[in-house]
Design goal:
Blueprint: H1 9-17, H2 19-28, H3 34-48, H4 54-59, H5 62-70, H6 79-97, H7 103-106, H8 111-119, H9 126-140, H10 147-150, H11 169-190
Helix pairs in contact: 1-2, 1-3, 2-3, 2-6, 5-6, 8-9
Length: about 190
């Protein structure tokens, strides 16, 4: 199975085969368009000249990594903060999973454990953890027992509510329409 977002095919290929790239893409997916966030790992690879390991990023000079993220066009709206979060993410992967990001999900015995582990990552909260676990289940076939229940509405088949459901520009448009409807309803409720 492969990731098939409406982004550069080379970026999708990287996200599909490199668990660290996929984690970084999901980490960057806040306050920037999805296309920018999930293209960020490929941009990082191009700037570094190679695919970094968790160990490399964990030990990278923080100012140098911030400079890589800040190079124009910046990898994120908040490049220094996201460089630091990326480094924190890499350090956690080194400390808890021996530098192997895939162990985060390959060694999870249940969907609940998977969501809990993801929620412990820097920059990931409870909802983002459910979305990422749903992405792993729907698009990469990572389905420990109870994964759909643990991912809540994001794991439902046929839903169009998050990046877990995006496989092309049409499904991206459906997810964006859903999010706009929710935002409008929330604003109306506050009025």
């Amino acid at each position: 199975m492969t990731i098939s977002l409406p982004i550069d095919p080379e970026a999708n290929e990287l996200l599909s085969r490199d668990p660290l790239a996929l984690l970084i893409g999901m980490l960057l997916d806040q306050q920037v368009p999805l296309e920018k966030a999930f293209s960020g790992p490929l941009d990082l690879v191009r700037r570094l000249g190679h695919e970094p390991t968790a160990q490399e990023l964990a030990g990278y000079d923080p100012d140098a990594l911030a400079a890589v993220f800040s190079e124009r066009p910046a990898l994120h709206r908040y490049p220094r903060a996201m460089a630091a979060r990326t480094q924190d993410l890499a350090r956690l992967i080194v400390d808890r999973y021996d530098g192997d990001p895939a162990r985060l999900w390959t060694s999870a015995a249940t969907g609940q454990e998977l969501v809990r582990r993801i929620a412990e990552l820097p920059g990931f909260g409870a909802t983002k953890a459910q979305i990422f676990a749903a992405l792993l289940g729907k698009q990469l076939g990572v389905r420990p027992p109870g994964w759909q229940e643990a991912t809540g509405p994001f794991g439902q088949e046929g839903s169009r509510v998050s990046v877990a459901d995006i496989t092309d520009s049409d499904s991206l448009a459906e997810v964006r329409a859903y999010k706009q409807q929710r935002k409008a309803a929330a604003q109306a409720a506050r009025s």
